[in-house]
Design a protein that fits this description.
This protein is an alpha/beta fold. Helices cover 15% and strands 20% of the residues. The protein has helices spanning 33-38, 96-102, 126-138, 164-167, and strands at 2-5, 48-52, 68-73, 89-93, 113-118, 144-148, 171-173, 189-193. Strand 5 (113-118), helix 3 and strand 6 form a beta-alpha-beta unit. The longest helix is centred in the last third of the chain and has 13 residues, at 126-138.
Length: 196
């Protein structure tokens, strides 16, 4: 595994459990259902899986053997208890804002990549959400899956709320089961843009 750190970050202590291995918590060791359900829809030319908000690597599991895997998150190097294989993994301790503002993107070609966000794109401002999506499009990314709280979400978390022109380019689907009297808008939504 390769690891790089842009800088140390402070993150909410609530997020601590996302970076650890807990065999008693299947949610923390199994990939999100959205990736399992969409896996067969990924075009055969895709050879790289990039995740923003990679946590302990559970979402790399479907990709770990046949794809290059690149993760971005805020945990320090050597801190994450990985639940995936790390042979094909490059981890970057870097925020979305720093990825956009400070990485050299001059030769970046995302045409053979699937870019996925999991509970991470809700944290940057609407401006950065817009910039992030436009950045992917400008660098030829044709496969994007965003799994975040939707614009109509009214709960305590932040939400994915970019310009409607970006929201409307995605197909929406829900993958998590509802709990009790929960409404669908209170669950993360899959925003899917594949093989475009």
């Amino acid at each position: 595994m390769k690891e790089y750190s842009y800088k140390p970050y402070q993150y909410d202590v609530f997020c601590e459990h996302y970076f650890k291995y807990d065999r008693h918590n299947p949610f923390g060791i199994e990939p999100e259902k959205i990736l399992v359900d969409c896996f067969d829809l990924i075009p055969s030319y895709v050879d790289t899986f990039i995740q923003f908000g990679c946590a302990n690597g559970r979402d790399f599991i479907p990709f770990q053997d046949n794809f290059q895997c690149i993760g971005f998150d805020l945990a320090p190097l050597g801190y994450i208890e990985w639940v995936c294989k790390t042979k094909n993994l490059t981890y970057n301790q870097c925020s979305i804002e720093d990825y956009l503002d400070h990485f050299d993107h001059s030769n970046e070609d995302l045409s053979k990549c699937l870019v996925y966000t999991q509970g991470t794109l809700i944290h940057p401002s609407e401006e950065y959400q817009n910039r992030f999506i436009q950045h992917l499009l400008d660098h030829n990314c044709k496969n994007i899956i965003i799994h975040e709280y939707p614009p109509e979400y009214a709960g305590p978390h932040e939400k994915f709320n970019p310009d409607p022109k970006y929201v409307n380019m995605f197909e929406r689907k829900h993958f998590r089961p509802l709990i009790g009297d929960q409404v669908i808008e209170d669950q993360p939504t899959g925003f899917i843009y594949l093989n475009k």
